Amino acid sequence: MRVVILPTEKEVSNFAADIIANLVKTKQNSVLGLATGSSVLLTYEALIEKYRKRELSFQNITSFNLDEYIDLKPNHSQSYRYYMNQKLFNHIDINKHNTFIPECIDGNYELSCINFELEIKKHGGIDLQLLGIGSNGHIGFNEPTSSLNSRTRVKALTKNTISNNARFFKENELQPSMAITMGIGTIMESQKILLLGLGKHKSKVVADIVEGPLSSFIPGSILQQHNNVIVVIDEHAATDLKLYDYYIHTEKMHQKYTC
Ligand code: F6R
Fold first, then answer.
1. Catalytic site residue 138?
2. Angle, nearest 10°, between helix axes 41-52 and 9-26?
3. φ and ψ at 231, to 5 degrees?
4. Taking the CB of residue 38, how many other CB atoms lie within 10 A of it?
5. Does 136 qualify as catalytic in the annotation?
6. Rg of the chain over CA atoms, in angstroms?
7. Which residues pair with 155 in a beta bridge?
């Protein structure tokens, strides 16, 4: 695992956007795995900025999102389809036909999940998967005790996730408690994984996934078994890392010895 600690949210996001932009420039038909939530917002803003400056084009990019709520229509303001359109897709030249969200089609959950997996395969797999991390260790909506080999499926959300995400919903607005999520096994097949952690409230879980034991109770800890993961975090999210100084040192060495 490469652990990159940067002073601010903005620097974390610019770092992440640069990695995504470099991939998009070198492989114009890249397949990106995308996330929603607050951790990735500034990264999307930085990508939009690069697009506006004509530094890159997403015309031939395909994307697969990690998850989608069950029971929210795509045009609902809290659906992840809506989020992706508002926060990224509407502002770049990506072809929306090439943007896949694990939505339930025609009420058939099982088939929708199978088709989502098939679509990823048909596109040759995910080149780069962007991840946030839930304070309970979830990646996507793979909640604690999810099978570490799981595939795309319907998952019940924990109370912790529901209350963390309640901030996005209006009072009295229906907040779904179920979602379709890309599986952990699916995520782990990505060529490269970029996980972002921002803020003090993520410091404990960041330490758990980087330094803790591998456990389905902290699903993100599975990333220790992937050989191309970059964890990019701000200073606040790094405060519980036992080997903090070592990560600062190794990153300096990384910058020095790689081109
Ligand atoms: C979102 C997703 C979730 C979030 C996680 C962190 O598509 O899959 O795993 O990445 O809940 O959310 P934020 O970034 O809002 O703290």
1. yes
2. 50
3. -100, 115
4. 14
5. yes
6. 17
7. 179
Distance CA 75, CA 85 (A): 10
**Catalytic residue, candidates 14, 136, 142, 165:** 136
Distance 165 CA to ligand 1 centre (A): 9
Q: Distance from the CA of 90 to the center of ligand 1, in angstroms?
A: 21
pLDDT digit string, tens, across residues 215-249: 999 999 999 999 999 999 999 999 999 999 999 99
Neighbours of 107 (CB within 10 A): 7
Compute φ and ψ for 33, nearest 5 degrees.
-100, 125
**Annotated catalytic residue 93:** no
pTM over 0.85: yes
Which is nearest to 105 in space by CA: 141, 70, 78? 70
DSSP run (H or E) holding 192: strand 192-197
- CB 210, CB 242: distance < 8 Å: no
The set of protein residues with a Cβ atom below 6 angstroms from ligand 1 is 35-39, 66-67, 132-134, 138-141
